[in-house]
Amino acid sequence: MPEGVVPVKNFNVSRYLGKWYEIARLDHSFERGLSNVTAEYELRSDDGINVINRGFLAEENKWKVAEGKAYFVESRDEGHLKVSFFGPFYGSYIIFDLDKENYQYAFVSGYNTSYLWLLSRTPTVSEDVKERFVKKSKELGFDANGFIFTEQDLAK
């Protein structure tokens, strides 16, 4: 877990389930070139969470889909999960900031400062939320100059 990144407490998984739009991310190979990225979360029968990530790859004119599963690392009321898209290999999914009143946006980190996302329930967020995301990310050692703000022009 990146230094200073602390998972949110009093996390309510039921309120987090459903569709989220990716507003911003750091660049990494598994999302390179994708726009209109979304993540959908639903409960599994084994107390885990099904994860379905989608993004549009314009150069191939097609949607890319990745399905995975996630499980809480400690307790269900802490925003720290492990997620896998490839067999037994898990990565960290750490919700370190969240609109706790309405669950409208979330700041999510991976296991180090190379992985970071701003997710929203809507295809856009206010400038205030973007500025807060950039400021907090810089304070925690993420490379804010590397942010990719995701196009959401096909949002439904």
UniProtKB/TrEMBL annotation:
Chief location: membrane
CDD domains: lipocalin_Blc-like (cd19438)
Domain Lipocalin/cytosolic fatty-acid binding: 12-152
CC terms in the record's Gene Ontology section: cell outer membrane
An individual GO BP term: response to stress
Localization per Swiss-Prot or TrEMBL: Cell outer membrane
Recorded topology in the membrane: Lipid-anchor
Protein's UniProt name: Outer membrane lipoprotein Blc
UniProt source species: Nitrosomonas communis
Superkingdom field: Bacteria
Function comment: Involved in the storage or transport of lipids necessary for membrane maintenance under stressful conditions. Displays a binding preference for lysophospholipids.
PANTHER family in the record: APOLIPOPROTEIN D (PTHR10612:SF34)
Record InterPro entries: Calycin (IPR012674), Lipocalin_ApoD (IPR022271), Lipocalin_bac (IPR002446), Lipocalin_Blc-like_dom (IPR047202), Lipocalin_CS (IPR022272), Lipocln_cytosolic_FA-bd_dom (IPR000566)
Keywords from the UniProt entry: Cell outer membrane, Lipid-binding, Lipoprotein, Membrane, Palmitate, Signal
